[in-house]
Amino acid sequence: MKLWLIIGWLVLCASGSWAAEAPALADDPVVEQRLIAISEELRCLVCQNESLAGSRADLAEDLRREIRGLIKANKTDQEIMEFMVSRYGDFVRYRPPVKPVTWLLWFGPLLLLIGAVIVLVRMVRASGRDATAPPLDAAQREKAQRLLKEADPS
Amino acid sequence: MKKKALIPLGLFVVLVVFLAIGLTRDPHEVPSPLIGKAAPDFSAPRLHAPDQRFGAQQMLGKVWLLNVWASWCVACRQEHPILMEFAKTKTVPIIGLDYKDEAAEGLKWLARHGDPYDLSVTDRDGRIGINYGVYGVPETFLIDKAGVIRYKQIGPVTQEALKDKILPLIRELNK
User: Is the pTM of this model over 0.90?
Assistant: First the structure.
């Protein structure tokens, strides 16, 4: 009985929190859709590992409000990105533009891969050379046999 | 063979150097794209006289500091004594931007901790803050006579930042 009360209470709580978020979505579904698409590309500056779409920080809410305003003013995605980047820098974009300062960021992993492949090829070649080392001559072979026999207790 | 054995050590040293540099940098300090650009203009009600408005335009011709603060901001308390001391020297005017704050709370806070500002304006909805790329309070901007942002302090103004960066820059800009 008590359990059912708790479950019922939780269900009430959950539906309550949905009800609170509904108005913003119902406001204008097209605007909200675009807002989500744009803000998922943007970093929240307060909690830097969260997107602007997912963050509950105060600033994120303000910035979503600003972006919502820009969408309603018929700005293009490009212009909205520009608005954000001119204030907070390229850091707000999860996909920074390719330009000289970000070359290392974009092409660094490729450089590492190329380096690793070169090292790998060299190592394979070096071990290949070991395999083609000259075979033992008769005296060495005899010595090896002797050593093997000595080691064998039977 | 011996040379080869040193390769992992070399790589390790490189890694350590990179990580050591990483440790000295604060990921919360995002370089502002506004440095070297014109300070965004604003016109906002004054904290002590809400019927009067004040704008960045009115500071043209002066080197000045714009300090973003709020009564709810804990780190602001840390820099406040430094600002109070600095204000006494009358080096440059300090304009306060009371960011996302209730005016009554802001006034109370200044009454309690002292008011280092020549004047403060209110930014109730945070729009001026957004135009200045503010993402953490306190932040301080040094603006030159032509209205160009020359330096931004993210987080509290420290004695070192004041002595090593802000004051030399003010001297240079006032030449």
Answer: no
